[in-house]
Amino acid sequence: MSLLIAVSGWDEAPWIERFRALLPEHRIVTLGEPFDRREVHYVAAWKPPHGALAGLPNLAAIFSLGAGVDHLLNDPRLPDVPIARVVDADLTQRMSEYIMLHCLMHLRQQRLYDHQQREKIWQPDYSQAAARDIRIGIMGMGVMGQDAALKLNQLGFNVAGWSRTPKNFDNIQSFSGSEQLDVFLARTDILICLLPLTDATRGMINRPLLQKLARNGRLSGPILINAARGGVHVEADIISCLQDGTLKAATLDVFEVEPLPSDSPLWTMANVTLTPHNAAMSDPDFVAAQIVQNILRLEAGEDLLHQVDRGVGY
Ligand SMILES: NC(=O)c1ccc[n+]([C@@H]2O[C@H](COP(=O)([O-])OP(=O)(O)OC[C@H]3O[C@@H](n4cnc5c(N)ncnc54)[C@H](OP(=O)(O)O)[C@@H]3O)[C@@H](O)[C@H]2O)c1
Fold this sequence. Notes:
Layout: E1 2-7, H1 13-22, E2 27-30, E3 40-46, E4 61-64, H2 70-73, E5 83-84, H3 89-107, H4 110-119, E6 135-139, H5 143-154, E7 158-163, E8 173-176, H6 181-186, E9 190-193, H7 207-210, E10 223-226, H8 235-244, E11 249-252, E12 272-274, H9 284-299
Parallel strand pairs: 1-2, 1-3, 3-4, 4-5, 6-7, 6-9, 7-8, 9-10, 10-11, 11-12
The chain binds NADP nicotinamide-adenine-dinucleotide phosphate.
C-alpha cells in the first residue's frame, strides 16, 4: 500500500520524512519518481498538477495538506473518492495570530507611525479609537473564522460573523445567507474574509459589496483583510476602491495570481499591507500526524474525519 505525496510550490522533503516516520508499513512515493499506480491507496496533496491523480485504480482517499481544497476541486480529472482537509489547532492558531495582528495594526494606525518614525515626525493621535469602538465582520465562520472571532472578541472588538448557516456564540452576532449579507456589511468597519473559494464565493468581494460597508465608523473608512483565497476577491475593484476612498486600507495575504505580479499596483500603495500567502502555513509535524491518524481510522473501518462536501465545494 502506498501514499503518494503530490505537492507543487512547496518543499516536499519534510513531508516525505514525516510520512515515512509515521507510516513505516506503507510505501511513500512522489510524483517525481517511478511508482506502481495500482499500489497507491492514499494521496497527500497540495496543488497537484491537473490530471496527476487520475489513473490510480485503488485510490481510497485524498488528503489536502492545507485547510482549503479549491486546489484539488479545480482539477477536472480529480478522482471521485472522499477528500479530507486539514483542521488543525496549530494552523487555526496561526491564522488567528495573523487576523489579530492586522486588526490591531489598523486600529492603532501602525503604518502611519512607521511612516512618522521614518520621517522623524512626533505627532500622536489624541482621538485614538478603542477596540470596543470597532465593528469587525468576519465572512466565513468556519474553523478559522470562529476562532478568530472569539479571540477578537476577547481583545474587546465588536465582532459579527456571516456564513451560509447561522451560528450561536455569546457576544458574536450571527448573520447568514445572501438575505442577511447587506445588513452585516452595513455594520462592518473591518471586513475579514475567511471564506473558502467555491463556485458560490468566487469574485464575491467586489466593488458593489465593498460599497456597502459602514462609512460612519471610528477608523474613517472601511478596511478589508483577506487571508482566505485571492479568487474570492476582484483585485481591480479593490485597487480602485483603495484609490477613491471606498476602502481606507487593506491587508492582503492572497491574490488572484500568486506570486503577485511585479507590475501590480498593490505592491506600492501606501494603504496596502501585503504578505506572501503565509497567514497560516501547514506545519508538516502537525499536519502529517493528523493525516496519518485519519488513514489509520479508514483502515480500522471508521469514518474519515474532516471530509469535504464536494457538492458545496468545502
Ligand atoms: N492564507 C492562508 O495562509 C490560509 C491558510 C489556511 C486556510 N486558508 C483559507 O481559509 C479558508 C477557511 O478555512 P476554514 O478551515 O475556516 O474553513 P471552513 O471551516 O470550511 O469554514 C468555511 C466557512 O465559510 C462559510 N461559507 C462557505 N461558503 C459560503 C457561502 N457561499 N456563503 C456564506 N458563507 C459561506 C461556511 O459556512 P457554514 O459554517 O454555514 O458551512 C463556513 O462558515 C480555507 O478554505 C482556505 O482557503 C488560508
